[in-house]
Amino acid sequence: MTTRTQSVDTPAGEARITWHRAPKPRLVLAVSHGAGGGIEARDLQALAAALPARGITVALVEQPWRVAGKKVAAAPKVLDEGWRGLWPALVAPGLPVVAGGRSAGARVACRTAAELGAAGVLALAFPLHPPGRPEKSRAEELTGAGRPALVIQGDRDAFGRPEEFPPPSARDPYELVEVAHADHGFAVPKKADTTQQEALLTITEAVGEWLGRLPT
């Protein structure tokens, strides 16, 4: 695996892509961070470490607000604008690109996947609703993505537990994998009968298996 960092100018400002290249890539998985952190998130780093060996180049995307050192995420419209602006750099290698992200990044991927021609959508810790506000559902962003989708969700996620998600349908298909004892950041309590490493392995194995089945 080789790693390279690329700066990309977008209408929302300078974005940054850290490429974790597979030796013989067959597709690119582009994943962005959430509103409360960057690409150092444990799930993003686990994917970047595990997937290149499976022929998947992982592109970790930092949104312009994060590159600029701001502490508060930009508005959804600006996040989408930044993602659209860096998309040409993601497709430049000439491989199918799966759009993904964690939390707010997952919402961006869902909202833009169809128009950008993404091969699929990976939603890590999709924020189905604000904590304690299940009536403020964002399910339509996920079900309306218009692309095959995989959701990875902790069973203690305050932004939406797996059982709160609407059932997939023939019109709005998606798959959901539950991570036992994990919260919104996929952190697992030390007292749980699942270790942190096992939780991350659940994520990387599920994503790798799904990408292996994804029509490209």
UniProtKB/TrEMBL annotation:
An example Gene Ontology molecular-function term: hydrolase activity
Domain KANL3/Tex30 alpha/beta hydrolase-like: 28-210
Domain of life: Bacteria
Alphabetic keyword roster: Hydrolase
Gene3D superfamilies: alpha/beta hydrolase
InterPro entries on file: AB_hydrolase_fold, KANL3/Tex30_Abhydrolase, NSL3/Tex30
One matching Pfam family: Abhydrolase_11
SUPFAM superfamilies: alpha/beta-Hydrolases
Protein name: Hydrolase
Annotated organism of origin: Streptomyces virginiae
